[in-house]
Model the fold of this input.
Amino acid sequence: MNEITLRPAKRRSHHRRSSFRSSFRPSALPTPPIDWASLVLNSLPQEPPKNFGDVIWNSYKDDLWKKHKPDSRILFELFRIVARDPDTSDGIKLLANILAGVCVLDGYGPTVEGLRKDERARMSTRKVASVLPFPPVWPS
Done:
């Protein structure tokens, strides 16, 4: 008759050698966080302002929109680059301008909400400062 015999599996022990490569892991090193959005936004070309409205628009883009919704700002700038390119066809320019407008609307809500949060934080620090009692004044 055929007998089936079960042999126990061989257990091999692997000894890791302590070496520089096994003890040195790049993830163990502290790395400063990189703000990719501002890095990309600072490298994009900007049109110089032509009038006072352009100055206000550029300050809104640089100060508020970049802070609260940088990803839609990056897309907006890329669509505007496509729309300004003289070799682009009129249909593509129209589509790029429409998509840039969608990015403006997408960035407006988070920017307004971020401004509200900033105002609430500023008001809460003002309330804390006004609640703190003044030290007693001793007559001299």
User: Anything to note?
Assistant: The radius of gyration is 30 Å. The chain has a mean pLDDT of 76.
